[in-house]
Design brief:
heterodimer; B: about 375 residues; two-stranded antiparallel sheet; 19 helices; 2 strands; flat
C-alpha cells in the first residue's frame, strides 16, 4: 500500500518542480533565442521583435558564414589544435603517470611534488608570456615557424589529469603486472597491454578534459598565433564579435539581414558540433566529476 | 664469538648452530650508505625504461611551468630590452613598494584590482556555491526519470560552451542600442517586464479603487540604462558575472551533490517518516547529514581558490568603462605587462596575488584533511 503524501512533501515537490522548470527554461532560452535571431529577418531583429520564435525567416546570415573561407579555416585550425594537442598531452601524461604510479620509482615524492606545486602556484600571465616568446624564438630557430605547433606542444598541461591517471594506474592489481613480466613483457608492453586497457574509462575522461581545454583555448592562442590564417575558432568568434558590436563600424551596414544575425549564426555554428557529440561523451563527463582526484 | 657486542647491529643469530653469522643484506646496506649516488645510478640504470618514461613530462613541466617562475625574477629587476632577466640589475622591492604604498594611480588601481578579485570570488561563494546544492535537492524531488533527465540535460547544456562563446552570447543579450540595432533581448525583456507590472498594478488599482496603486511605476531596468548597454555600466558587471556563472555552471556542478543524495537508502526516509518527520525534518535529519561532507570539501576547495579567478571570463566581459568593478589582478597584469610595457610591475602584482592564493589553497587542503581524512591532492 502506498503511503499518502504528507501535505508538506506535496508542497515542496510542487515548488521544486516549478522552480526547476523555470531554471531549465532560463538555461535554454539564450540558445533558442540565438537560433531564432540568426534566421530572422533584418527588421525583426533590429527592432527587437524576435522574442522566442523566428520571424521573416532568412538564411543569408548562415550563408555568409558558410561562404567565409576564414570560418572554415578557423574550424580546421581548431581541429588541428584539438587532435594533436590532445594526443601530445595524453602521451606524456600517460607515460609520466605510469612511472609515478610505481612504488619502486626513486624520488617518487619529489616528482609528485613537482606536479602538485604547479596546481598551487603559477608564475602568472606576464612571466608565461615572456616564456612563450622565448619558446617561439627557439622553435623558429629550429625551423618550426608554424605557431600552431607552439600552442600544441607548449600549452595545455594539467597536473590534475596526470594525478587522475596515476591514481587509476595505482588501482591496477600488481599480480597482473607480475604475470606479464614473467611472460616476458617489457616495461612498455606492460603499460600498453595491461595498464592502458585496464584504465580505459579514466583515460577516456582525461582525454575529454584535454580535448575540451584545447577546443576552448582562446587567450594564449590569440597572443601567440600571429598569422591570421592560423587562428582557431574561438579567436575567430571573438574578433568577429569585436568587429560587429562596434557601433561605428556597423553604421553603414546595409545587407538584407541584421548584423546581429551573423554573430548569432556564428554562435550556433560553434555549438552545434558539441551538441552532436554530447550524447556520446556525457557519460564520461559525469564520471569525471566524481573521480575528482579525491584520494583517501 | 668475536664481536658479540656488535651483534645487535648486523650479526644474525642462527638458532640451529647457536652461533652468529653475517647478515648477507648488511653488506648491501653498507654499500648503499657509503655510495648513495652510485646506488641511485645503478637502480636507475637497471630500471632505465621507467625513468625514460618520466622524461617528456618532466621536460614539459620544466620548460613551460617552471621556467616562467624563473622569469618572475623580473619583478625584482630593472627592465632591459636586450639583457636576459638574470643579467639585469636588481631594483629590489621597488615595484612592490610602488604597488602597495606608491600613492600613484597604479597603486590605487592595484588595490582596486585586489579588492575586485576577492569580491568576485566572494560573491561567487555566496550566490554561486549554494545554487548547485539547491538544484540537487530539487532534482531529487522529480519522480519521473525521463522528466528529471530532460531537466538535467537542459541545465548541463551551458557548461558545454567555451568561455568565448558564453561571453559572446552574454554580450549580445545585454548589448547597447545603436542606430542600426536594438538593445540585447535580456535588457529588452527586463525593461518590458517593468511596464507590464506597472500596467497590472494600475489595473488592480482601478479595480480596487486604490489611488496609490494606480500611480505606482515599477522599473526593473530603466530604458536609458538598458540602451547604454549593461556591460558598459560598472554597477551591473558583478551581477552579470555571477548570473552568467550560475547559468553556466550550476546545473553541471549539481551532479556531484545529486550523486550524494541518490546514494541515500530509501529506508532512511521511511524510518524518518515512521518517526513522524515532515519534509523539512527529513531534509534536516536525513538528507543534510548525508551530503554535508561533500559540501564541506567543495566549500573548502572553493575558499582555497578565492584568489585564483579565471582571468579569461573577466577579460572577455570587461571594458574600460567598467574597470571600477571588473578589473582583477590578472587583467591588471595583462594590461600593464602584455599590452603595456611595465613587465616587472605586472609580474610583481600577480606574484603577490598568487602567493596569497597559494597559501589559501594549501591551508584549505590542510583543513580538508583534518575535517574528513580526505586529501584533495
Amino acid at each position: 500500500m502506498k503511503r499518502k503524501l504528507e501535505i508538506s512533501e506535496l508542497i515542496f515537490r510542487i515548488i521544486s518542480c516549478t522552480l526547476l522548470t523555470i531554471f531549465a527554461i532560463a538555461c535554454l532560452y539564450p540558445f533558442l533565442y540565438a537560433v531564432s535571431a540568426s534566421v530572422s529577418g533584418k527588421h525583426a531583429v533590429e527592432y527587437g521583435e524576435v522574442v522566442l520564435l523566428p520571424k521573416d525567416i532568412q538564411f543569408e546570415a548562415f550563408a555568409r558564414m558558410f561562404n567565409d573561407n576564414m570560418f572554415w579555416n578557423s574550424y580546421s585550425n581548431t581541429l588541428f589544435l584539438t587532435v594533436y594537442g590532445t594526443v601530445w598531452s595524453l602521451v606524456y601524461s600517460i607515460l609520466g603517470a605510469y612511472a609515478l604510479s610505481k612504488k619502486r620509482l626513486l624520488f617518487r615524492k619529489t616528482f609528485n611534488f613537482i606536479l602538485v606545486f604547479t596546481m598551487w602556484f603559477s608564475a602568472g600571465l606576464v612571466p608565461q608570456y615572456l616564456n612563450y616568446l622565448a619558446t617561439k624564438e627557439v622553435f623558429n630557430a629550429v625551423g618550426i615557424t608554424d605557431d600552431k605547433w607552439l600552442v600544441v606542444i607548449a600549452m595545455g598541461m594539467a597536473a590534475m589529469n596526470i594525478i587522475l591517471l596515476r591514481n587509476a594506474f595505482e588501482g591496477v592489481p600488481s599480480e597482473i603486472e607480475e604475470a606479464a613480466i614473467v611472460d616476458g613483457a617489457t616495461e612498455f608492453q606492460v603499460l600498453s597491454k595491461v595498464y592502458i586497457p585496464m584504465s580505459k574509462s579514466t583515460i577516456a575522461t582525461v582525454s575529454l578534459f584535454f580535448a575540451i581545454s584545447r577546443w576552448n583555448g582562446y587567450f594564449w592562442a590569440r597572443q601567440m598565433i600571429s598569422n591570421k590564417n592560423e587562428h582557431p575558432l574561438q579567436v575567430f568568434i571573438r574578433l568577429k564579435l569585436e568587429e560587429f558590436t562596434d557601433p561605428e563600424a556597423m553604421a553603414g551596414w546595409n545587407e538584407v539581414y541584421a548584423s546581429d544575425s551573423v554573430i548569432y549564426a556564428l554562435i550556433v555554428c560553434s555549438i552545434v558540433p558539441i551538441l552532436i557529440i554530447y550524447p556520446f561523451i556525457q557519460k564520461y563527463f559525469a564520471k569525471g566529476v566524481n573521480v575528482g582526484g579525491v584520494k583517501e | 664469538m668475536k664481536g658479540k657486542a656488535k651483534a645487535a647491529d648486523y650479526l644474525l643469530y642462527d638458532p640451529a648452530s647457536g652461533t652468529y653469522r653475517e647478515d648477507p643484506e648488511q653488506a648491501v646496506r653498507d654499500d648503499v650508505e657509503k655510495h648513495y649516488w652510485l646506488h641511485v645510478g645503478r637502480t636507475i640504470l637497471k630500471d632505465w625504461r621507467l625513468y625514460v618514461m618520466l622524461v617528456p613530462m618532466l621536460l614539459v613541466f620544466l620548460f613551460w611551468r617552471y621556467l616562467p617562475m624563473y622569469e618572475l625574477l623580473g619583478a625584482f629587476k630593472v627592465p632591459d630590452e636586450v639583457l636576459p632577466v638574470a643579467q639585469q640589475d636588481f631594483s629590489g622591492f621597488s615595484y612592490f613598494k610602488e604597488l602597495l604604498v606608491g600613492g600613484q594611480q597604479v597603486s590605487t588601481d592595484f588595490w582596486r584590482a585586489l579588492r575586485n578579485t576577492f569580491l568576485l570570488s566572494f560573491y561567487g561563494l555566496c550566490f554561486g556555491f549554494p545554487m548547485p546544492i539547491i538544484l540537487a535537492l530539487f532534482f531529487n524531488e522529480v519522480r519521473s526519470n525521463i522528466g528529471r533527465s530532460a531537466l538535467q540535460v537542459m541545465t548541463y547544456l551551458p557548461k558545454f560552451m567555451s568561455t568565448v562563446v558564453m561571453t559572446s552570447l552574454v554580450t549580445m543579450l545585454v548589448k547597447q542600442q545603436s542606430l542600426t540595432t536594438n538593445m540585447g533581448i535580456i535588457s529588452q525583456l527586463l525593461v518590458d517586464m517593468g511596464h507590464i507590472v506597472t500596467q497590472l498594478l494600475s489595473g488592480l488599482g482601478d479595480w480596487l479603487n486604490i489611488a496609490s496603486l494606480q500611480n505606482v511605476t515599477v522599473t526593473f531596468l530603466s530604458q536609458e540604462t538598458a540602451a547604454a548597454g549593461l556591460l558598459n555600466n560598472p554597477d551591473f558587471f558583478r551581477g552579470i558575472y555571477q548570473i552568467s556563472g550560475i547559468w553556466e555552471g550550476a546545473g553541471y556542478d549539481s551532479i556531484v551533490f545529486f550523486a550524494a543524495i541518490i546514494a541515500i537508502s530509501p529506508t532512511s526516509y521511511e524510518a524518518a517518516q515512521i518517526d513522524g518527520a515532515g519534509k523539512m525534518a527529513q531534509m534536516r535529519y536525513v538528507v543534510l547529514p548525508s551530503i554535508i561532507s561533500t559540501i564541506v570539501i567543495m566549500l573548502i576547495t572553493r575558499i582555497g581558490s578565492l584568489l585564483n579567478i579565471g582571468y579569461e571570463k573577466v577579460l572577455l566581459l570587461y571594458n574600460d568603462k567598467t574597470y571600477v568593478t571588473a578589473d582583477v589582478v590578472s587583467t591588471f597584469a595583462q594590461r600593464h605587462g602584455i599590452e603595456g610595457t611595465r613587465k616587472g610591475l605586472a609580474s610583481a602584482a600577480e606574484m603577490m596575488n598568487n602567493v596569497i592564493g597559494m597559501m589559501l589553497v594549501i591551508g584549505a587542503n590542510k583543513i580538508a584533511q583534518k575535517a574528513s581524512n580526505v586529501s584533495l591532492y
